[in-house]
Amino acid sequence: MIFAGMICQRNGEVAAALQTSEASASRRRLPNALLLNRTCPQQLRAPPPPLDRSDAAVRVVIGAGFSHAGLSGLSTMLSMLPGACSPARPALDFWTALGRKRGSAPLGRGGRRLSARGSALPGVVETRARYLAEGLRHRPGACSLGWELTPSYASLTTRRLSPPATCTALAIRHYVPQARVLLMLAEPVLRAHGQQTAWRTTRCYKDQHQAQLARQPGGTRRGNAKMAKGAPHRCERLTANAQLRVELSQLRSCGLTPSSTAHDLQTCASKLRAGLRAELPCTSNCPLPALISSHYALILPLWLGAFPCEQLLLLDRATFFDAAASGPAASGPAASGPAAAAAGSKQSSSSSPSSSPSSSVASSSSAASVHDRRDRGQSGRRLGVASVGLAALPAVGTLQSTLRFLGYPQNATAAIAAQLAQRRALVPPPLNTLDNPLDPILRAELEAYFAPFAEKTRKLLAEHRRCFAERSGAGARFETVDPAAKGGKKLVSAALARAG
């Protein structure tokens, strides 16, 4: 049991969680369990009603994090998979709006809109039906794999959500207990740098080209670089160096440690927002704290505890896209199967925390190499996950193992992976940080700050690997199309052809 407090979700009693938490590691996580018991609606903490036969047969894949870690790069792959549905939009934000007073929020019983405070959440049956039909656009007989990719599900930077952001994992588990969740991680500093750059090029400047013009001497002063509509006044001053320096100063004052709770992280996020508002007064298009979502060690327990380990896949941006770009050989039999899909072969567990980036990350193809060249720091070294000790994932996220996790049979994954590679369905979303460089000294300070959190993250991943290894037989419960069966190959080819 990774997270003792989550036992309360299965039996509805926090007392049971306290009684069964005899291990010291579990006792250290009780503050998060008590936080969820205090802040999450009782409905989410009670056992979910059993699925009926029709719902249990529906495959649901939810990508939930982390922002600008590369999750959106999976959308093309998912849309090309055999039997995949076409969601209303890749990022639905459905589970962060259950209690909002807005048109996209689910209706309560009798068609009554829910209150903004979300004291009462909608019923399970009608909410699940709406999610499948309107959000994922699941049509029985027409498609069998409903999916969405919403990085904000794993974000704790916004507190005014209903249910609260800390309860999102519980909400998904309560309403769609058969869902399989993808969490994509990236090197913490690189991910935060990409998030800040995305704000700068979409909320400050009109586009990436205008941001490049601003980098030229006098570009902004001469009016050569066009600003985005509604851009905050003098937003061009808030570069990656300026914003991340402000955030690092606030983080140090927060005193966060690897043993802090999600509530501590949210409280610190409020301080970071206040610090950014003081640096750049604004009323709209304001930047969100970029470093908060890189605290994987404080966010992962919410997901590791809410979902059984066989329903949760942790992906590493660099490893996944590098291995996929290297072709099917990188996703061979040694890396396939449920255990590998959950991060878990002996090869991955034997990786040393001190491994160098070149030894812990797979070699890149041309597409990944171009991406790496654009995102090298001024120090000239590759910014891989191993730079802060997340190299415990060298075998996770290979294409075939991911397909196996999504429910495709073992003998079909090689054919599907080969066709996806041929169609170039897996290209990492560019970070475009070349025009928003980060000072090497600041980068070193940020990596030093995240080092202890990376150590805690490695321990969480190791526990998750062990749990999945114990339940490896439960990794393929979905009924899937077998390309080896009669008509199976035609279905795979037709699905890829329909995807364009």
Quick summary:
44% of the residues lie in helices and 5% in strands. By secondary structure, the protein is mostly helical.
Structure, described:
- By secondary structure, this protein is mainly alpha-helical.
- It has two domains: 4-39, no CATH class; 55-187 and 297-498.
- The chain has helices spanning 7-11, 14-20, 24-28, 30-39, 42-45, 53-56, 75-80, 124-135, 168-175, 188-204, 208-215, 240-254, 262-279, 296-306, 317-325, 338-341, 346-349, 357-360, 366-374, 399-405, 410-422, 440-470, 488-498; strands at residues 59-65, 145-149, 180-185, 312-316.
- Helix 12 packs across helix 13 (262-279), helix 14 runs parallel beside helix 22 and helix 20 (399-405) packs across helix 21.
- It is globular.
What labels would you give this structure?
500 residues, mainly alpha, 2 domains, 23 helices, 5% strand, globular, disordered N terminus
Gyration radius, rounded? 22 Å
| Fraction in helix | 40-55%
Number of domain units: 2
Question: Which spans have pLDDT < 50 for at least 5 consecutive residues?
Answer: 1-28, 101-119, 328-397, 474-488, 491-500
According to DSSP, the number of beta strands is 4
Largest sheet: 4 strands, parallel
**What coarse outline follows from CA principal-axis ratios?**
globular
Span between termini:
43 Å
How many H/I helices?
A: 23
**Can you give the mean pLDDT?**
73
User: What structural class do the secondary elements suggest?
Assistant: mainly alpha
Strand content: under 5%
SSE succession: HHHHHHEHHEHEHHHHHEHHHHHHHHH
Strands ordered across the widest β-sheet: 2-1-3-4
